[in-house]
Amino acid sequence: MNKNTKNFVFTIILAYVLSLYLPWWSVMLAALISGFLIPLKKGAVFFIPFIAIALLWIVQSYMLSSANDFILAKKIATLLMLDGNSTLLLLVAGVVGGLAAGVSGILGKQISTLSK
Amino acid sequence: MKQLKFGLSLVLAITTFYVLNTKLGSLPPLGKFLSPSQGVWQNEITESASNSEINIKGLSAPVIVKYDEHLIPHIFAENKKDLYKAQGYITAQHRLWQMEFQTHAAAGRLSEIVGEDALNYDRTERRRGMVYGAEQKLKNWEKDQEVIDYVDAYADGVNQYINSLSPGEYPVEYKLLDYAPEQWTRKKTALLLMYMTKMLAGGDSDLEYTNFLKKYGKERFDLLYPDFFDVNDPVIPAETDWSFMENATQTPIPDSEMPLDYVKETIEKPHPDNGSNNWAVSPDKSYSGNAILANDPHLGLNLPSIWYAMQLTTPEQNTYGVSLPGAVGIIIGFNEHIAWGMTNATRDVIDWYKIEFEDKTNSNYKYDNAWKATTKRVEEIKIRGKETFLDTVTYTHHGPVTYDANFKGNGEKVGYAMRWTGHLGGQNQRTLLDLNTSKNYDDYKNAIKNFLAPAQNVIFASTEGDIALWIQGKFPNKWKGQGKFLMDGSNPEHDWQGYIPQEYNAHTKNPERGFVSSANQHPVDESYPYYVFNDGYETYRNRVINDFFRSKDKFDIQDFKDLHNNNFNLQASELLPYMIPVVEKAELSSDEQNMLNEIKSWKYNNDIDEVGPTIWQIWYDTLAELTWDEIENDSIALDYPFKYQTAYLLKNNPNDKFMDIVETPEIETANDLFVIAFKDAVVKLNTLKTNKGTINWKEAKATYIGHLLQSLPAFSRHDLPIGGYSGIVNATSQNHGPSWRMIVEMTSPPTALGVYPGGQSGNPGSKFYDDLVDTWAAGKYLKLNFMQDKNQNDGVIFSQTLNPSNE
After folding, report:
1. Which of A18, B79, B297, B372 is placed for a possible disulfide with B367 were both Cys, Cβ 3.0 to 4.6 Å?
2. Tell me: the pLDDT tens digits for B705-747?
3. Chain B residue with minimal CA distance to A110?
4. Chain B nearest CA to A37, separation (Å)
5. Do B38 and A24 touch (CB under 8 A)?
6. Where would I find the H helices in B407-513?
7. Residue A17 touches chain B, beta carbons under 8 Å
8. Using CB atoms, which residue from A28, A76, A106 is nearest to B9?
9. Measured between beta carbons, which residues in chain B are less than 8 angstroms from residue A103?
């Protein structure tokens, strides 16, 4: 398994476990820890945790929402001016989670560089 | 370099966290809001369809809750304390955000949640003494241990639910506005009842009338705002014999001056259409020989609905109906023996007194030729993201000085104080609980005795075959004309001199005509021995209802349904025959001629697929604006005359000075106004047609049910296919109308139908959020499943068991 894959899998698992006990920013913590323990290079520093958490959030949200026929997702998508499109809302959620994770991944990497 | 990179990435991470964790403007904190573990996805739930068990502290025995297919809970408890604890828990489970939001609104605490925009609203609520009134209520309740026990049991139930929640489980509105629920208290229940009191008895026009009187004089006032209209079909039948009130004496008129002040701006009033219909027929007039009762309270149409339906059962009682989330018991409903309903009595229970302060500290005011000390209440209004606002409200023996130098007043040393029965406290919660368990007319009569405000026309029917209606509230015994206008707060003779004795409140039991009814019209005719001021009485719905019950001998359930859904526009039917012939003689364009032909063929029914109601309403509204242009365009606060009187004057005083449009050089008469208004209306109708593609009543009226929070479109329902209008028995206007429709036949046990425009769940993510809306709009009802046995599973979709626990 290369480092990217390792970081990716570890971030998802850690984020999932932490989210059971901590608020939403558990994904930032997870990405920070993986970025520190499994430092990546260049764009991957940001994009691997970004994709990991975006995926996690989209899948989790999709599962919760599809079980209820997207009733609320459509309304929230209207509220956030996404034209009532629940798929778009899932993508936005993914981007938000991914962004939080991505910047945390960068921070994790910098801490690891600093501590060397 | 390393350090710099680290520093930059730290700043980036912190900034991202801050932005995603903070509410920015109207945007919720997006990280929190969209996270699957904590955000809105957790609210994407329709209430569970599987049975569950919950541990509740302080129960004496298990409580069984059965949910029917509309999520209406049927609660079976072993005693009342358990029952009301369960009511609190179950209500909070479905309506927590609404319960808290409404009491925040009552307490003038919205700025805490939504920020500075609500400050003016909050100050108004504080200055009308809403919190003071709730405290007065609590003082009374605390004298009645049983009531306090139930109110506390309810609060404990709510709190056990709140305490069981993680932030991820909070209702979605908390997440949207980024705040958390606080603990429920008995004071919040008192505040909720103040919220209702204000909604129903919080309006008056005294200051507007004073402005009018000062400007136009008494003769003009009496013409535009008469005490009685030339038609009157009162709540209590006109033939009622008042001779039993042998000790009734109306307060004599004092010989004194009234202050005549101009007030530029008055405080916000409740919706003028807040009212209702109720009626009941006696066994003789009923198809089955059982009395039948109906009620439909007209209120603002909101989601979550103001009502929450439930059945409350102990071995001693079995009550079904609608509750107000936050209040204990059923408010409108029935049990095995009786059914009851409410409409607003619309009596003048707010008066205003001019206060002269000794100096600008407002510490003393003139009373009976001496200086009397005031008390002060410092209202702390927390504002989201801003410093707390402190508002000092001065209190006199009349009540709070709402208007003063700091708030919409007339400069220093002058104030206007409010005298309101809403501040008297009372035992409303006791009345409601006693009605829940009443078994016959005497129980009902005793139950309502201590109900002070908001005064209600409380209708009653029993399995024993009695029907009755009491106009119940605490009513000041006024001198003729007292409280129409601003009074002199320094003159003891201007104080309320006493109250009408409760047993002299107008009422009727088993009247000869075989039915009782009310629709916010005049309570009595002129023979009633006390002074009753016309506080804007309804003059149309009542006549349609009473004429209907006079029209034949027997009535069945279908008749009741038809009457709820009756769209006959009596006002149009009385005025249009005067207007159309005038316009027919005028020179019209082909467009105008077409519109005229359309309305000529209209049968006065405000049905959804008609264009007649649209043409009529726009024509009439334009006409009213032109008639009352003097009032519309004045810089001081004035009220439009009543709808009925407007029509009366157009027909009977067509050359009155008010008919003239001030800004034109010509002198207009009513006939001129009919034509000008019609031509204006056609222009507006054409615009409407261009914008909406049709002028059908459904699209023109565009009825909607708005979410309680500024009608957020995403959580609201729009363009509902329902007819009617304000002043019609089906009183559905754009955002106001029948908020609960109930029909109960007094079989043993009673058989009932009911529906409300909403759904049991307050969660916009639930299919039960608005599942009753379409049924309601279609004029249909749910068959209410009045369960007689807790082991019944017929029509039950799932159940919850609340088990006693000690932890």
Report:
1. B372
2. 999 998 889 999 999 999 999 999 999 999 999 999 999 999 9
3. B6
4. 16
5. yes
6. 428-437, 441-448
7. no
8. A106
9. 9, 12-13, 16
| Residue B415 three-state SS | strand
Report chain B residues whose CB lies below 8 A from the CB of A100. 16-17, 20, 31
Residue of A34, A79, A95, A111 to mutate for B, most B C-beta atoms under 10 A:
A79
Per-residue pLDDT at B2? 81
- Please provide the average confidence, as pLDDT, over all residues in chain B: 95
How many Å from the N-terminal Cα to the C-terminal Cα in chain B? 57
| 3-class secondary-structure state, position B361 | coil
Provide the CA B70 distance to its chain's centre, in angstroms: 24
**What is the tally of structural domains in chain A?**
1
Task: Name beta bridge partners: B320.
Answer: B311, B334
Residue B678 — pLDDT band, cuts 50, 70, 90?
A: very high
Q: Given CB atoms, is A32 within the 8 Å cutoff of chain B? A: yes
What is this model's ipTM? 0.97
Residue B555: band (very low, low, confident or very high) from pLDDT cuts 50, 70, 90: very high
Quick count: other Cβ atoms within 10 Å of Cβ B6? 18
Interface contact flag, B764 A72, Cβ < 8 Å: yes
User: Which residues from chain B sit within 8 angstroms of residue A69, using beta carbons?
Assistant: 767
pTM here?
0.95
Q: Which domain holds residue A54?
A: 3-114
Give B339's Cβ-side CA count (13 Å radius): 31
Residues B715, A92: C-beta atoms closer than 8 Å: no
Q: How far apart are CA B346 and CA B147, in angstroms?
A: 27
Q: What is the pLDDT of residues B297-333, one digit of tens each?
A: 999 999 999 999 999 999 999 999 999 999 999 999 9
Cβ-nearest to A61 among B2, B12, B41: B41
What percent of the residues of chain B are helix, what percent strand, and what percent coil, each to the nearest 5? 35, 20, 45
Residues of A in contact with B36 (CB under 8 A): 19, 56-57, 60-61, 64, 93
Q: Which has the closest alpha carbon to B359: B414, B311, B406, B440?
A: B414
Is it the case that residue A116 has pLDDT exceeding 80? no
**Which tokens in the block code for residue B165?**
């929640």
Q: Do B766 and A71 touch (CB under 8 A)?
A: yes
Those of residues 745-764 in B touching chain A at CB distance below 8 A are: 763-764
pLDDT tens digit sequence for A27-80: 999 999 999 999 899 999 999 999 999 999 999 999 999 999 999 999 999 999
- Going by pLDDT thresholds of 50, 70 and 90, the confidence category of residue B792 is confident
- Verify whether the Cβ–Cβ distance A71 to B713 is below 8 Å: no
Q: Does B55 contact chain A (CB < 8 Å)?
A: no
Chain A within 8 Å of B12 (Cβ-Cβ)? yes
Q: Which of B510, B509, B426 is nearest to B474 (CA)?
A: B426
B40 in A contact zone (CB under 8 Å) = yes
Fold exhibited by the domain B203-373+420-564: Glutamine Phosphoribosylpyrophosphate, subunit 1, domain 1 (3.60.20)
DSSP tag of B85? H
Across the range B524-542, mean pLDDT stands at 91
Where are the domains positioned within chain B? 203-373+420-564, 570-604+611-695
E-strand ranges in B657-713 read 703-707
Tell the burial category of B687 from Cβ atoms under 10 Å away from its Cβ (0-12, 13-18, 19+). exposed
CB contact under 8 A, A107 and B13: yes
CA distance B121 to chain A (A): 25
CA angle A75, A77, A79 (to 5 degrees): 70
A1-37: per-residue pLDDT in tens? 788 999 999 999 999 999 999 999 999 999 999 999 9
